[in-house]
Amino acid sequence: MAAFLESRDLDPVWLSELMRERVGAGLLLLTSSPVHGLANPTSDLDFIRIQEAAIDGPRISTKIFENGHHLEVVSFSEAELAVGLQELSRLADLPAEQTVAGFRVWDKQREPRRKQTERIVNGLAMDGSAPYLRWLPALSRVWSRAALQTAIEQVVHATLAEAAGETRGRVGYAYNVLLHLMDGLLSHHGDVYTTRKWYVLRWTRLMAEGAWHDERLQSAAAGLERLRKDVHTFLDPAAGGHPLAAPYTEVVLDAVQATGTARAVTVGVELTGRVRAFLPGAAVLLGSDGAVMLPGAGTGTDLPFTGAPVGLDELSALDAPTAASLLRALRAGAARLRIGYLDEEAGR
Of the ranges 56-60, 228-232, 305-309, 327-331, which one carries the lowest mean pLDDT score? Predict the structure, then answer.
């Protein structure tokens, strides 16, 4: 940190005094790209301040322009941070499904929000210390599980799109699978950073360093890297008939197993919309973002996997009309995926 601040002609003592003058006393943390070695000459400097007094309401960052520097700082109280870190530890100890559920409602329920919590755990004080780094293992586990589940959901969409005959749509989902798998494996290795634009750069850095926890994780990373280098080839019209979903499903399951999250993954479907009669023998499923004509008798149970869930590797057996109906229902917000984990391990 000292070298970075020196490169910007900034003094930690001056920064501390400036922030105390502008926003008040408290523990000042440098966060974001400089902490991860990713800052460039045009990067803003983001700070978080932890104060003793309580703070009410949503937080808005204070922007400070001083001596040609663009500084931003947002403040939280010691008490609310303590509650958030306790929740982080609790989520890390739960089964994977509950971990992800808690992660996804975090921002609706508490301050600091997920992004700021990650910044605080990784943040560096002006003396160069990392006062909240002891929460990094919990942060890594929660963030890794959340990223892996998003990758699972995206590979489900890729599989449905491929089965429905969407030659380009499946590639878009495939890119998402790769990005979230990168984030999941990076987080598992303690490199947790919420900003998506840095995923690929951080991933290529980790690949170059080869600092994997074990050979199982290294093998999963190698499989991901092979897919990353070839994904663009599926945009060629001539590749329309080449299977994409199966190898992506395989690498997702490999990552889930390598991280100790679970032995297997199941997929179910839950209706969130309302079924309304449309024509004799047919109905419409109304979602938050659109409507879907239901196949068959139109009861909603005609959509696959609304009963017993199936294995993630069993989705490709769907015929094109059924896959297309389910994909439209998911896109319309009329149905959602239920991801389950079998024989979950203790994690490593």
Answer: 56-60
pLDDT of 153 higher than 50: yes
Whether pTM exceeds 0.90:
yes
Structure-token match 């586990």, residue found: 141
How crowded is residue 286: how many other Cβ atoms within 10 Å of its Cβ?
Answer: 16
Mean predicted confidence (pLDDT) in 323-328: 90
- Label residue 281 by pLDDT band (50, 70, 90): low
Q: How far apart are CA 304 and CA 326, in angstroms?
A: 7
What confidence score (pLDDT) does residue 279 get?
66
**CA-based torsion, 253, 225, 188, 107: positive or negative:** negative
Among 84-98, 138-152, 218-232, 277-291, the least confident range:
277-291
Residue 222 CA to residue 242 CA, distance in Å, equals 21
How far is 222 from 337, CA to CA, in rounded Å? Answer: 28
Q: What is the 3-state secondary structure (H, E, C) of the chain?
A: CHHHHHHCCCCHHHHHHHHHHHHCCCEEEEECCCCCCCCCCCCCEEEEEEECCCCCCCCCCEEEEECCEEEEEEEEEHHHHHHHHHHHHHHHCCCHHHHHHHHHHHHHHCCCCHHHHHHHHHCEECCCCCCCHHHHHHHHHHHHHHHHHHHHHHHHHHHHHHHCCCCCHHHHHHHHHHHHHHHHHHHHCCCCCCCHHHHHHHHHHHHHHCCCCCHHHHHHHHHHHHHHHHHHHHHCHHHCCCCCHHHHHHHHHHHHHHCCCCCEEEEEEEECCEEEEEECCEEEEECCCCEEECCCCCCCCCCCCCCCCEEHHHHHHCCHHHHHHHHHHHHCCCEEEEEEEECCCCCC
Q: How many residues does the chain have?
A: 348
